[in-house]
Amino acid sequence: xxxxxxxxxxxxxxxxxxxxxxxxxxxxxxxxxxxxxxxxxxxxxxxxxxxxxxxxxxxxxxxxxxxxxxxxxxxxxxx
Amino acid sequence: xxxxxxxxxxxxxxxxxxxxxxxxxxxxxxxxxxxxxxxxxxxxxxxxxxxxxxxxxxxxxxxxxxxxxxxxxxxxxxxxxxxxxxxxxxxxxxxxxxxxxxxxxxxxxxxxxxxxxxxxxxxxxxxxxxxxxxxxxxxxxxxxxxxxxxxxxxxxxxxxxxxxxxxxxxxxxxxxxxxxxxxxxxxxxxxxxxxxxxxxxxxxxxxxxxxxxxxxxxxxxxxxxxxxxxxxxxxxxxxxxxxxxxxxxxxxxxxxxxxxxxxxxxxxxxxxxxxxxxxxxxxxxxxxxxxxxxxxxxxxxxxxxxxxxxxxxxxxxxxxxxxxxxxxxxxxxxxxxxxxxxxxxxxxxxxxxxxxxxxxxxxxx
Lengths: 79, 365
Description:
The complex is a heterodimer.
Chain A: E1 5-15, E2 18-25, E3 28-33, E4 45-49, E5 52-56, H1 59-77
Antiparallel strand pairs in A: 1-2, 1-4, 2-3, 4-5
Chain B: H1 10-23, E1 28-34, H2 35-44, H3 46-49, E2 54-61, H4 63-66, H5 69-79, E3 84-88, H6 102-107, E4 112-114, H7 118-127, E5 132-139, H8 144-156, E6 162-169, H9 171-180, E7 188-192, H10 193-199, H11 205-211, E8 215-218, H12 222-238, E9 243-245, H13 257-266, E10 267-274, E11 278-287, H14 296-299, H15 316-320, H16 352-358
Parallel strand pairs in B: 1-2, 1-7, 3-4, 3-5, 5-6, 7-8, 8-9
Antiparallel strand pairs in B: 6-11, 10-11
Helix pairs in contact in B: 1-12, 2-16, 7-8, 8-13
């Protein structure tokens, strides 16, 4: 239940005063509530939990983490 | 899918594990709090690849597993009523109650519906004005904002035939209960990344300091988990008892402020019993008095008379506290399987027994 799936925002709209989005999960498009992500915009990636976006994936942080992990991995390979 | 494949890179994991072997000098016991992480660890085989110096124990972070038996029985009683449509996340349907489960109720003609989002319950309520629609609102802090939004929307849209059977629990209270228990030895925690997405991680900072345990916010993919373990072991080896974030693409220290505001608007904090563990003080959310009209336990007061009976064989309470691993249970894989579960840990996709059974960890290593 705490698991979430990353997807890309392809459309934003409103239902009953709630901010909603269409989210593309590698070709499967589903609607989700974006009420907790007031700043989200089309093209952002978000993680969806039980039909709600709870975070916008920070691409800069993701890239930095991957770079750091690759550096550690290179150290693991040495000696 | 972007943000998935790169976190399942076997070659990267192998290299990171080699680095871990260089860092680690002694045996350490780490607990991953969240059952979603337990499944990821067992499914990816990390439990078998990791340094033998690391003992991974599995924590209580499976909301389906810790929902008290009394509430499961109340759910079954409600779902059996002809005037009720009972809605739930799918995992709850096979959780054993004292005598039955929600699937059995559905098989006998009860109107039990699996939903994807709590908001789906409101649609069902609008379409069925002559029935009460009761949603099983369970979970940790991750599902609290979605469930709270269903309550707010019910009120603002005037949907009065909607109610929620609430069983919400919180992670920091569980960590306190574990660390206050004299016979539980955990050296470091991997904190649940998506709970922290909502709540941030500032709540854990005083706990790390008080109990002298590093706590590392950790994601769910195999690379994320190895990253969390690496950080946690590095902190332990340096004797540093602080909180670090190994899931920065989703988690910031202060968490999701709008989500926290809605949690606070709809819920207040209460003592709550955890199945197999007992009452943990200040560990749950309940609906605030201004939302009492949506509280299923108040709307159906006859539910208070329910008597419960647990299986005498099941040790899921010990599994949920990391005191035992699933194969140590005499019923594991025998009387208790996913088809005939004695405890909720064998049912849920976040339950440790289910993970061990599904991925073939039958032998007590």
